[in-house]
Amino acid sequence: xxxxxxxxxxxxxxxxxxxxxxxxxxxxxxxxxxxxxxxxxxxxxxxxxxxxxxxxxxxxxxxxxxxxxxxxxxxxxxxxxxxxxxxxxxxxxxxxxxxxxxxxxxxxxxxxxxxxxxxxxxxxxxxxxxxxxxxxxxxxxxxxxxxxxxxxxxxxxxxxxxxxxxxxxxxxxxxxxxxxxxxxxxxxxxxxxxxxxxxxxxxxxxxxxxxxxxxxxxxxxxxxxxxxxxxxxxxxxxxxxxxxxxxxxxxxxxxxxxxxxx
Length: 262
Prior knowledge:
Layout: H1 2-28, H2 32-52, H3 56-77, H4 82-103, H5 111-116, H6 124-153, H7 155-160, H8 165-187, H9 192-206, H10 210-235, H11 239-261
Helix pairs in contact: 1-6, 1-8, 1-9, 1-10, 2-3, 2-4, 2-8, 2-9, 3-4, 3-8, 6-8, 9-10, 9-11, 10-11
């Protein structure tokens, strides 16, 4: 009992740091629909991993990378709007994932956990994967913080200074793909986006600087995950939805606090 709770808490901390920090850029860059789309593609990654016998984490990263590259290529052609491109690919990926799962149908497969997460089933290998991705994404954010922030706040100035917009756009999309690959087991395919956008939405009410917003977003994410995890264990509820409800409660509370402060 103590071991699986300890693993769940460790995973929750790692995922909170990842989602809370990257989620701020999702809000700033107005890429909520992209995170929603790539979360739909996660079902295809999971199903291909199960069908091929490869690691699910590995297949999630591969599908996410392919998804991001295809989106960037089509965005450069400027033939369709971004939301149209994302809508097309996300629904294709989601449908393909469902079809692959139907071919490998297994009565022992827990489809509910794929859709809504099951943090209590996390293994030691999953913990290692979470923290490897956390280190990679943390280093990338530290190295490229100024350039990513400049492209987010003033894209024209960043391009004028010689920054490659397509490269950093692709880099950020790949970072989101990595974040999604470690979040599936926590909140599931259908709820990943909430973990990326609600904590920074709450933090935005109180933060005065970009770095402050990232820090507060991580704290909000940790609090919500802890509340959701505790509630799900106490009342035998699905962990993913419990975490999202906790996030929703914090968001509503922040809006009331914002009104009072103004």
